[in-house]
Write a structure and sequence with these properties.
- The chain has 8 helices and 23 strands.
- It is α+β, with helices and mostly antiparallel strands.
- The strands form 5 sheets. Strands 1, 2, 4, 5, 6, 7 and 8 form a 7-stranded mixed sheet that branches.
- The N and C termini lie far apart (85 Å).
Length: 439
């Protein structure tokens, strides 16, 4: 197998042209900016831009892409063609690679942040590497928009989609299960829920098996939905991308207990984006326009707000449920716009508001889901104008989105209500200063 100009780095264009003309397998040294990459996965063999297929004995020896457009240098690689697809093939026996971050080390092209065991920078002509470094400082990546690129507010529009978002957290939730937490400042659509609430089920607060502690949740944004995205592959090598804007290409979703759950596929690809990428700037402007005041705390989907409840004070500040969860104060009372998605006990004849007794309401908004108690004086106030159990059942069904006609719809869509929620020193939530409208 011939090696063309040992030590010299060939441009992608030159390598493609040479491979077309050559009748014998030829090895090249290639260098270029990484635009997009797939997640690590097991393979049974190998099957202007150029795709590079890198094979190693261990997933942890694969290149770790941790920023937008790093420089990838590949030595002793082949150019192959399969149908109309042309790609570079890395052979673990004699190929090597190195990754450089031009933005972090613009004046030193000889120190990679990761290299394979067989890589030797001294055997390479670094002149071309420096030219790529210089090019990268002026290169402007632009995300190609298409019908598959959506915002979180468009979830459910299509089964498979692309998403431009910010990674706010990565969590290992099992032996080979990982969860990405992504956000773009918009509100995911409220989901319909199963109508059968005969059992006292308060519903999950997060998609299992992912229950985060408060210290982690306090790092999350308080406006807009954070989508949990499940990956059946170790993505820890890319954990340094936290806070990084990314484009996830070709993913899908599931729903569990009225909660959205994204899912990465074997064909999913990831593109790290710089903060000044035009689509990222557009997304940031939309978030800034949403603001931090009352309007910014209201769900996109709650207008107009049905007059099902009233509160006895307008002095409390508006907040999202994530505002409450991340609240550092010991005690606070806020106004929220939420949906009542479950109640325990379900049977209104078991409702009791004597002393500390009461019921548990499961409340959600685009940012989070919580369990809030309704007991004692606050419970009595909530049902103050509703005396009979029959009328109370009718109003609770209305809050839960249960149809008044039996067997007409297997799903329910709870309406939005305004209520006051108190966080106490023990970090328990309770509904207060709120009354059901009887009419």
């Amino acid at each position: 197998m011939a090696m063309r100009n040992e030590g010299r780095i060939t441009t992608i264009r030159e390598a493609l042209a040479a491979s077309e003309m050559s009748r014998t397998p030829t090895l090249f040294n290639l260098g270029g900016l990484v635009i997009e990459f797939s997640f690590p996965r097991k393979s049974h063999g190998s099957g202007s831009k150029l795709k590079a297929h890198v094979f190693t004995n261990s997933i942890h020896h694969l290149p770790r892409i941790r920023s937008s457009n790093p420089l990838l240098l590949l030595t002793h690689i082949q150019i192959k063609k399969h149908g109309n697809d042309v790609y570079a093939v890395y052979n673990k026996k004699y190929s090597s690679f190195a990754l450089f971050d031009p933005k972090a080390n613009a004046n030193n092209c000889t120190t990679p942040y990761q290299a394979s065991p067989g890589f030797d920078i001294h055997s390479i002509d670094t002149t071309h590497i420096q030219s790529i470094f210089d090019f990268s400082l002026h290169y402007q990546l632009v995300v190609e928009k298409n019908e598959y690129l959506i915002s979180l507010k468009d979830l459910g529009r299509s089964e498979y989609f692309d998403l431009l978002c910010q990674v706010v957290h990565i969590e290992n939730v099992g032996a080979e299960d990982w969860m990405l937490f992504v956000w773009d400042g918009t509100d995911a659509p409220p989901l319909h829920l199963e109508s059968n609430l005969a059992e006292d089920d308060p519903l999950l607060l997060e998609p299992a098996p992912c229950l985060l502690n408060v210290s982690t949740l306090r790092k999350f944004p308080c406006v807009g939905s954070v989508l949990r995205v499940r990956a059946h592959v170790d993505i820890s090598m890319h954990a340094q991308g936290m806070g990084q804007w990314v484009k996830i290409r070709n993913m899908t979703y599931e729903t569990h207990s009225g909660l959205w759950l994204g899912r990465l596929l074997p064909t999913t690809k990831l593109m790290f984006l710089p903060d000044n990428e035009p689509t990222v700037l557009e997304c940031k402007r939309a978030m800034d326009e949403r603001g931090l005041g009352k309007e910014g705390r209201l769900p996109f989907w709650s207008n107009p707000l049905p007059a099902l409840t009233v509160i006895d004070s307008s002095s409390f500040p508006f907040a999202t449920l994530m505002d409450l969860i991340t609240q550092a104060e010991d005690e606070i009372t806020v106004r929220c716009v939420v949906r009542v998605v479950a109640v325990s006990p379900f049977d209104v004849e078991k409702f009791c508001f004597d002393g500390r007794n009461g019921i548990i309401l499961t409340l959600d908004d685009p940012t989070a889901r919580i369990h809030a108690s309704l007991n004692g004086h606050d419970g009595g106030m909530f049902f103050e104008d509703i005396s009979s159990d029959t009328f109370k059942r009718r109003k609770m069904d209305e809050l839960l989105g249960i149809s008044s006609e039996e067997n007409t719809n297997p799903h329910r869509n709870p309406p939005w209500i305004q209520c006051c929620i108190k966080l106490d020193a023990s970090r328990f939530y309770s509904m207060c200063h709120t009354k059901l409208v009887a009419s």
